[in-house]
Amino acid sequence: MKVLLVLGAGGEGGAETFYTHITLALHRAGIETHTALRQNDNRVSLFKGAGIETLVLPFGKLFDFKTKKGLKQKVKEFKPDVVMTFMNRATSLCPKGDFLHLARLGGYYKLKNYKNCDHLIGNTKDIVDYLISVGWPAERSHHVPNFASVEVDAAPVSRADLNTPDDATVLLSLGRLHENKAFDTLLRAAKIEARPYVWIAGEGPLREELEALAKELGVQGRVRFLGWRNDRGALLAAADICVFPSRFEPFGSVMIEAWATKTPLVTTRTAGPEEMATDNHDALMVPVDDHRGMAAAISRVMDEEGLAERLTAAGFETYRKDYTEEACVQNYIDLFEKLLAQEKRIAS
């Protein structure tokens, strides 16, 4: 089986991170995997280092005459059985051809860019329900969840390097510095529960605004803005609690990363966490934008005897059952094989 994976975004985010990890995982599983993507030094280096054939294209918005031509040539030369595209731009620019075109969706996207796809994959059941509700055929809608893409047994980062006392409780939150991720709620919670240090790993348009809010709240001395990091496993290994404060989250890769690394999890009740987690079992769940409830949940993990251990044991079992790399990759391979067999039967 030959699979071409296509990404038109050049930045860092949840979809881009999963694209990187599923590409490498399929390659490790023995699938003949090629990539076509917009320039990103980290991704290109990882793919080339793994021996994955990599084509860099502009994926521009206007006056880009190279990308469509380059994709057509790639398809002609590689002759993929499956082309899997990620996000709007890559999907809309994908040429037609003698291959199965699948698009993977990690959000509730408008389907105008997906009309030429053969099948759509949602990483949550709720996204699949959304696709069907807006008219996409149910028989061409499929659910395949993400997997935890962290180094499970990573050595912890040095707290001293991050100007954090060794005996402090550390809250870690990861994600793009965007309104949807609600890091402002976490900062407000940190003003109420004033014992922990807060590490925020991510980059984005709200960096200056969040730094200003931390100063306004008087918590800047305990908050560390770490920028975008590629050592999430090491950060989780060094942290005491993972906090996932999003106000909108279709899936929530951070959750399964916390479970995989046995880090107690506090999360909000958004779509992904509601589908995946069970309150007071594998996570503590609080309403969106409820900084007081978040502070109380953090205090519980810190103070309630045995709670952290119960959460991490149950979370690790949830991860082991549903969200390992092996399970996710096998789900994708099984889906590819099933759909290709269907196409073959139809053709014959």
UniProtKB/TrEMBL annotation:
Glycosyl transferase family domain: residues covered: 158-315
InterPro entries: Glyco_trans_1
Keywords in alphabetical order: Glycosyltransferase, Transferase
Keyword Glycosyltransferase in record: yes
Molecular-function GO terms, alphabetical: glycosyltransferase activity
A Pfam family reported for this protein in Swiss-Prot or TrEMBL: Glycos_transf_1
Protein's UniProt keywords contain Transferase: yes
Protein name, entry field: Glycosyl transferase family 1 domain-containing protein
Organism: Kiloniella litopenaei
